[in-house]
Specification:
Chain A: Its EC number is 7.-.-.-. Chain A: It is an enzyme of class 7 (translocase). Chain A: One of its GO terms (molecular function) is metal ion binding. Chain A: Belongs to the 4Fe4S bacterial-type ferredoxin family. RnfC subfamily. The complex is a heterodimer. By secondary structure, chain A is α/β, with parallel strands linked by helices. Helices cover about 55% and strands about 10% of the residues of chain A. Chain A has 29 helices and 16 strands. Chain A has a six-stranded mixed beta sheet, with helices on both faces. A four-stranded antiparallel beta sheet of chain A has the order 2-7-6-4, with no helix packed on it. Chain B is mostly helical. Chain B folds into two domains: about 170 residues, no CATH class; about 150 residues, no CATH class. In chain B, α1 runs antiparallel to α13 and α3 packs parallel to α6. The chains are: A alpha/beta, B mainly alpha. The interface between A and B is large, with 74 and 45 residues.
């Protein structure tokens, strides 16, 4: 068995499967020499005439340019310059219909020729071998040379191949019927083409150079053989005439028996293919210094009076070519850019010749009949027999019609070269290629969408991860504080300390207020940048508040023992006043908000009179009423649904009325609820279910005064949890865990106090989180509350004072929130 | 100037559907002539009946399906189905046999599945099997070749027999089928099968006057005529060689093996190739593009399987001939065959 190289040297040719033999029609245009056309009235030069990026504009409207002067500068990779095809003035730079099947407008430079055709300064090279690889590549790049066989791939990229090239294949096959541009170029400029080949030879250093020419071009074959006799590495190979043997993949197969891997490039198998027109342009660029500004175009078809090849300046409108060659249009005239098999019809003749334009075909309706109606596919597989890529066009067609993209890819749709052989032989005249083009475009689009979706998913997951991480950090903080609470000795000492301090400041609300104010001020000062500091300050304030609450609780216990019930009338008066205030306030707020009164607020109204038996209860009821009113206000402000669980837990309040100590508890609960409701409303989201579940735990805690504190703690904890849950869609498990941990501390009143402190800390933190993500609230309701609060002077001043303190705290907190909310904005 | 837009390619080889179908119909002509010569002009009457019925039922179904009638009717596919069915059934079968068969083939097997290109089964063969199962007597009543008839059948006799099931000279079809020696005669395949089942050897069975040295008189020539038509189709590139070659090759190979192993009970290759519907099936029936495999490797498998099934059913099945059954069975296997015989696309399976 001979080696591949030996076989090739001996002249062995291989076959590709399929292929068709459409009528050649080449003699129509290859009988006359290539003509020179008069200068057109205008030239339209699209910036993009190749595969790759646009160059950067170097000229502007009104500029005078010389022939061969670059109009754009290559910028990114794969961008090529365009050059002025003649001297003249730039009259416009605007998007104009492009030489593309879609004719979508491309930014183009319009030149009005001055008629002088004055060249700019050219720098021809005399001795090729003195030039470095890089210099040569740069010359090709700056000459704007792109593959002239049809694809328009930038030549400098190919010439700079980093893969070793075994065979340089020169494509002079020209298998498309009608087209004779390469044929005539080879006949007339074989010497220059060989010069171009030798430039590529120096750049790529291939083992052999194979020139493939179909055997229907004997003159071209002879000319090329004669021009290449001095170079033993060049082998001219006449190949059998069969469409599409000029396809890159098919030609490689015919000349070397190799196959380009699917989705690969010829360089992968050590092969590089160049069209003869490109090689001529390379020779012109090197030896004459001329950039690519003109090319041979076949103007042919039965409606052309003088069908022949012409030298057309890049940018010449098709109309000019047709007019020069004598064009007599028929009805339903088609003007095809390219050949009859792969060319595309033009919507207008005002489209310029570009670097890849090899033929203008204007057939009449006899020589190339209009396609008939599409009939049913009979699965005859004539298409499969014709396919040079050994695809199953018939199967692809069914999949394309049913938009079965997976199957299309499984049947290698993307290996289709759109040569049109299948459509050419289809007895049902199905426009198969058109189906494949559409399907390919759809699949590409779908893949782009998939990539987009994947990116979005990645972003989402990254965000989720970040949120989880943040939550984890928060959780760790909680754990730290929980572990502090779990250390009973140290913590008990602290609580005791706090209690003593609080006792010293008994009745001194201002101290607490001051602490809160300090915290607020600090917070407002450093915003949310350093939450830890404000946290500490607030925590201190909270601890004080907690201590105060504890004291208040104790105090109410004491008074319960000492007090007589004969003062009931005055107490009742106070209660009535409180109720009246609450109702008035509520009415005012409702009117303000013009919204539906939340049902549970009404329910709590009916609760209040029940508490009227006792003056102390009255105060409590007033506190509850105020808290509820506040809650209602906030809910109304947010115009959101009243959280169901809040309603549920309300029912727990009346039970607390039996005992004066419980009253204080109830007040605490009310405050907690108010806070929770406020936070939930701020978040404008659905109340999390678990909060509802844990609410049911509140009434149970009422039995014992010590438990009361616990209940308060739970309520606050819930509030915090709810807020957190709203921030993140998933309820944090640790919050629940720590909740369940709180009741265990019930045994000891001191532990309860500790728990309360923890709960408050959490509630505060939750509030902060909520604030950071919520809209600023500007509601003047607290002021009105203030007024009504300051009015009554009942005998139970101390207790009232305590309650007032609680209210004030709540208000202060709210104001703090408002301030914070306003500050960032 | 308004330019006309079209998608590439802008050229076509001018082979269209109706030309394809008419070429196949034309290729049937040698076989039809041979049938006329050996079995009388009944086949022409059947052809006319089938063509008319096919045109009417196709037109009716198309209008019910709200499709343009003429473009579909003019593609000739319905006429081809009619021709193939008409030359498959006994020439003197009653008129309603071919009418029922054609209506079934066009309306049910073809149009109800979506028309041309969508039918899973070969319409002519599906109809043939329907008729064979529904009307076994009429469908197996092949007359002896004309030269062996006791009383020659005139054209008028044949026409009245087809339409009224009796004629001036014959009480019924059965009497018309009586041969010179006073016995009714079945097809060579049938005769052979009966003889072998009665423990006669093949050689003894083929001593009968309806046989030549290697096949039945008349049937041999009809098959050869269809072979000529088939070769014309190959030459005209209307069909690919894969299916006929695989089918005939497998049938010849199997029968050769059978003949070598048990020559007494198994007829030889030539008998099988030139009997019954072998050549008609190989070149005209199995090559129906719609219901056959579409890949070249698949076609080899498809053809070979039909050949094998024909041989097995003829020798061991309950029916004397088997082309219709074999084709229908393999029609069902086509999607599977196609799936596993996808050819290697250019650039696939090569080292990158």
């Amino acid at each position: 068995m001979d080696s591949l190289l030996e076989q090739i040297e001996r002249g062995t040719l291989w076959q590709f499967p399929g292929g068709v033999h459409p009528p050649q029609q080449k003699s129509l245009s290859n009988q006359q020499p290539t003509a020179r056309l008069p200068l057109p009235d205008k030239l339209v030069l699209p910036l993009k005439q190749h595969i790759g990026a646009n160059g950067q504009l170097l000229v502007k409207e009104g500029d005078k340019v010389l022939k061969g002067q670059p109009l754009t500068k290559p910028t990114a990779n794969w961008s090529l310059p365009v050059h002025a095809s003649t001297s003249g003035e730039i009259t416009a730079i605007k998007p104009l219909p492009s030489a593309h099947p879609s004719a979508l407008p491309e930014l183009s430079i319009v030149i009005a020729p001055d008629g002088n055709d004055t060249w700019c300064e050219l720098n021809p090279v005399s001795n090729l071998h003195e030039l470095s690889h890089k210099t040569l590549i740069d010359i090709l790049h700056n000459a704007g040379i792109a593959g002239m066989g049809g694809a328009g791939f930038p030549t400098y990229i190919k010439a700079d191949s980093h893969q070793p090239i075994e065979f340089l294949i020169v494509n002079g096959v020209e298998c498309e019927p009608y087209i004779t541009a390469d044929d005539l170029l080879m006949r007339e400029h074989a010497k220059e083409i060989v010069q171009g080949i030798e430039v590529m030879q120096q750049l790529l250093k291939p083992q052999r150079i194979l020139i493939g020419i179909e055997d229907n071009k004997p003159e071209a074959i002879a000319a090329m053989q004669q021009a290449s006799t001095h170079n033993t590495k060049i082998l001219v190979r006449p190949i059998p005439t069969k469409y599409p043997s000029g396809g890159e993949k098919q030609l490689i197969r015919v000349l070397t028996s190799k196959e380009v891997p699917s989705a690969g490039i010829p360089a992968d198998i050590g092969v590089l293919v160049q069209n003869v027109g490109t090689l001529f342009a390379i020779s012109e660029a090197i030896y004459k210094g001329k950039p690519l500004i003109e090319r041979v175009v076949t103007v042919t078809g039965n409606t052309i009076g003088k069908p022949q090849n012409v030298w057309a300046l890049i940018g010449t409108e098709i109309k000019h070519l047709l007019d020069c060659q004598g064009f007599t249009p028929v009805s339903e005239q088609r003007v095809v850019m390219g050949g009859p098999m792969m060319g595309f019809t033009l919507p207008t003749v005002r489209i310029p010749v570009v670097k890849t334009t090899n033929c203008i075909l204007a057939p009449d309706n006899q020589e190339l009949a209009e396609p008939g109606d599409e009939k049913a596919c009979i699965r005859c597989s004539a298409c499969a027999d014709a396919c040079p890529q050994t695809l199953l066009p018939q199967q692809l067609q069914w999949f394309a019609k049913s938009k079965d993209y997976d199957k299309l890819e499984a049947y290698n749709l993307f290996d289709c070269i759109e040569c049109g052989a299948c459509s050419y032989v289809c007895p049902s005249e199905i426009p198969l290629v058109q189906y494949y083009r559409v399907a390919k475009a759809e699949i590409r689009e779908q893949k782009l969408d998939q990539i987009k979706a994947e990116r979005a998913k990645e972003r989402f997951e990254a965000r989720k991860e970040r949120l989880e991480r943040e939550q984890q950090e928060r959780q760790n903080k909680h754990k730290r504080s929980t572990s502090r609470a779990a250390k009973p000795d140290a913590e008990k000492a602290k609580v005791a300390d706090a209690l003593t301090r609080v006792k010293q400041k008994q009745g001194d609300k201002s101290a607490v207020q001051a602490a809160i104010e300090r915290a607020k001020a600090k917070k407002a000062a450093d915003g949310s940048l350093e939450p830890d500091n404000s946290e500490v300050a607030l925590e201190r304030a909270r601890r004080k508040e907690q201590a105060r609450q504890y004291k208040e609780q104790k105090h109410s216990e004491d008074t319960a023992v000492n007090e007589n019930s004969n003062e009931s009338s005055s107490k009742k008066d106070a209660v009535a006043a409180a109720i009246a205030r609450a109702k008035a306030k509520k009415a005012a707020q409702q009117a303000e908000q013009q919204s539906e009164p939340p049902q549970h607020a009404q329910a709590s109204d009916s609760d209040a009179p029940k508490a009227g038996d006792d003056p102390r209860k009255a105060a409590v009821a007033a506190a509850i009423a105020r808290a509820k009113a506040k809650k209602a206000t906030q809910q109304a402000e947010q115009q959101s649904e009243p959280p169901q669980h809040a309603q549920a837990s309300d029912s727990g309040v009346p039970k607390a009325d039996d005992d004066p100590r419980k009253a204080a508890v109830a007040a605490a609960i009310a405050r907690a609820k108010a806070k929770k409701a406020a936070q939930q409303a701020e978040q404008q989201s659905e109340p999390p279910q678990h909060a509802q579940v844990s609410d049911s735990g509140v009434p149970k805690a009422d039995d014992d005064p010590r438990k009361a504190a616990v209940a308060a703690a739970i309520a606050r904890a819930k509030a915090k949890k709810a807020a957190q849950a709203e921030q993140q869609s998933e309820p944090p498990q640790h919050a629940q865990a720590s909740d369940s941990g709180v009741p265990k501390t019930d045994d000891d009143p001191r532990k309860a106090a500790v728990a309360a402190a923890i709960a408050r800390a959490k509630a505060k933190k939750a509030a902060q989180q909520a604030e950071q993500q919520s809209e600023p609230q500007t509601e003047p309701a607290p002021q009105s509350e203030d007024k009504s609060d300051s009015e009554p002077q009942t005998p139970e001043q101390k207790r009232q004072a305590a309650i007032k303190a609680a209210v004030a705290k709540a208000k202060a907190k709210k104001q703090a929130k408002e301030q914070e909310g306003n500050d960032p904005s | 100037m308004k330019l006309s837009m079209a998608s590439s390619p802008h050229n076509h080889n001018h082979k269209n559907l109706s030309r394809l179908m008419l070429t196949v119909i034309a290729a049937c002509i040698p076989g039809i002539i041979a049938q006329c010569y050996f079995f009388g002009f009944g086949v022409i009457v059947q052809l006319l009946l089938a063509l008319i019925t096919a045109s009417l039922s196709e037109a009716l179904m198309l209008s019910i399906r709200k499709r343009p009638v003429w473009p579909a009717l003019s593609d000739g596919s319905a006429w081809l189905t009619a021709v193939l069915l008409a030359i498959s059934i006994p020439p003197l079968a009653p008129w309603w046999v071919i009418v029922i068969g054609t209506v079934f083939a066009i309306a049910m097997v073809k149009q109800l599945y979506g028309g041309l290109g969508f039918n899973l089964f070969n319409p002519a063969m599906a109809a043939y099997v329907l008729l064979l199962i529904s009307f076994p007597v009429q469908m197996t009543s092949w007359t002896p070749v004309t030269s062996l008839l006791a009383q020659p059948l005139s054209l008028a006799d044949q026409v009245t027999l087809i339409f009224f099931e009796y004629s001036a000279n014959h009480q019924d079809l059965l009497s018309a089928m009586t041969s010179v020696d006073g016995t009714t005669m079945a097809t060579p395949l049938d005769t052979l099968k009966t003889a072998v089942s009665q423990n006669f050897t093949v050689t003894e069975a083929m001593m009968g006057e309806q046989f030549t040295a290697f096949a039945g008189i008349g049937w041999m020539w009809v098959n050869l005529a269809f072979l000529v038509g088939g070769l014309f189709l190959l030459k005209a590139k209307v069909i690919n060689w894969h299916i006929p070659v695989a089918l005939l090759g497998t049938l010849a190979f199997c029968s050769a093996i059978g003949f070598i192993i048990a020559p007494g009970s198994h007829a030889g290759s030539l008998f099988h190739l030139l009997s019954g519907g072998t050549m008609l099936g190989a070149f005209f029936i199995a090559t129906d593009p719609v219901s056959a495999s579409t890949t070249n490797r698949g076609r080899l498998i498809y053809g070979a399987c039909i050949g094998l099934l024909v041989y097995l059913i003829r020798n061991y099945g309950g029916y004397p001939d088997a082309v219709a059954f074999a084709v229908l069975i393999m029609n069902m296997a086509v999607p599977l065959i196609d799936h596993y015989t996808q050819p290697r696309t250019y650039g696939h399976g090569v080292a990158k």
